[in-house]
Amino acid sequence: MTAPAAPLHPRLLDAIHGPADVKALAVAQLPQLAEEIRAELIAVTAKNGGHIGPNLGVVELTIALHRAFTTPEDQFVFDVAHQGYVHKLLTGRGGDFFRKLRQTGGASGFLYRSESPHDAFGAGHAGTALSAALGMATARDLRGSREHVVAVCGDAAFTCGITLEALNNVVSSTKRLIVILNDNEWSIAKNVGAISSYLNRISTNPIYNKVHHDVEAFFKSFPTGVEMNRVYTKWKRETKDFFVESSLFEKFGLRYLGPVDGHDLDALHKNLEFAKHCDVPVLIHVLTKKGKGLEAAVEHPEKFHGASPFDPVSGESRKTVVGAPPNYQDVFGEALVRFARADPHILGITGAMPSGTGLAHLATAVPKQFFDVGIAEEHAVLFAAGLATKGFRPVCAIYSTFLQRAYDQIIHDVALQNLPVTFCMDRAGLSPNDGPTHHGLFDLAYLRCVPNATIMQPKDEDELVDMLHTSLQLPGPGFIRYPRGAGTGVKIKAQPVALPIGQAEVLREGSHIMIWALGSMVPDALKLAERLALEENISVGVVNARFVKPLDRALLLSHAACIPLLVTMEDHVVAGGFGSAVLEALHESDCSVAVERLGWPDKFVEHGSSLDILRAAYGLSPDALCSRVVARWRILSAERIAADV
Ligand SMILES: Cc1ncc(C[n+]2csc(CCOP(=O)(O)OP(=O)(O)O)c2C)c(N)n1
Question: Nearest 5 degrees, angle CA 143-CA 146-CA 152?
């Protein structure tokens, strides 16, 4: 048998098994490595989807980081961590593991301490890197060790309150921290706010670029190292008026370097080597091009921030199915446009997610009633509270997982003052390819205990519109949760109806088991009921709960009085969720009917290829649910027969 022929041009990337291999390459080989990484990123994300734009922008930066520092001894903390694919490829996670990116058994789309010792800190939510890195740098100082800690933050991370809180604490916490400001001018959409304008002014101002050229010239005269640092400090002192006063970051006590071309490996190398020897915290302002290397991604940075599978040549999405039901986000966005056109008091607020939440429809149609406040969920909710005090009807469209960040504002500012703010929580339930940082599995548990809250989940997109309409008439806060992706395809009524608050809907009668299903679980409940009737001869009814708070207690108690088994179904953790609300209501009425709660377990659910695969892994596939209900029913029947005897 003959051995397979070696490829004509073996890839450098295939010989990279860890950071030492990156360091061993000659400088002249690095552009080829960068090119190969880009090709790999495009090939894998074109198939699996993923954060292609951000990663194409940080190829040279990540190579330069791994040449200048040595992980895992030195530590990189990537903000959001959606731009960590290149880091994965350079830290032994290439090959098949990377090709299964965001799939079951493959690399996660974010960074996890459990995935690799090179992932110093996990993330998926924005704005955490600087605080975490500062904690790590301070711990290092307390321990007396010397490793480097590098925070890599996007420009939009500086729209987050936490980043600014951390910035305020840098100099009082450590003398040695390196912050990379990866400025590509984009959040998911175009970055917003005063800091973004400020960064733009720095990047385009010829004075700053002059400084940059002077720094370049300066670097040419000195080798890297302590001597360079000493001379630089002197030079900087002498040019103080010109340079030091020029940067906002200098006012926070960080030495500002830049702007640096983030695709120039040599410039990156010099700045990183210089920063390593600084005895004050340093911020290197790096300018990168989001999507570099893929024309479609450069032209459409928002679409390619996080793309679904696409054609690598044309950039066309592969997922578009003609005639598919609309996504919940679009139904919400279009309904809000209709309502906002009819009532100028209705406003839409997003924390940097106009397209993901569907608020882009409002931004286009009624721009005066649309606000993008940056990645600032706490501010978004408080801002809405303020607007509500003046008679406006703000709608905060924030993914379930990101609303976690605004919990105090929900309680302290909105609910306590019973202000009429509507919260539209998209991505409630599982976000399979993204994983635990993005699953919206906790919102019911964290909202159910908040007084004045009305909490709903629609069974389909038409009911979503009714719920939005209903919430916009509430005297206090309304929360509507709905899942990622396509609706059920039902027709949307021309005129929405206001739902009676706290009233559930019986969809199917039954005498043995009643399934109380919430929102996206209603279709599954109907199928389960049908199957139990056909295969097991059990009479099963289904209730569309609609409201988690207030619950339809009257209906619940009437079922509890005559039906032996109640089953609850929810796309949420069982702990503290909808089923728990049912149990509490029954307990408060001294009602001891059997209840089987079906939902996600008390575990962080990993990423996976699909919802079905993850459901199967956690005993929530249709077969597993059916077996569970049947088993419970049989035990109950046996007990009842024994009791009768
Ligand atoms: C708390 C929170 N809100 C919203 C998001 C959604 N999100 C993911 S990345 C991103 C933009 C990040 O922009 P930037 O930090 O500039 O990095 P870039 O993608 O441009 O490299 C947003 C809004 C998030 N991850 N976390």
Answer: 105
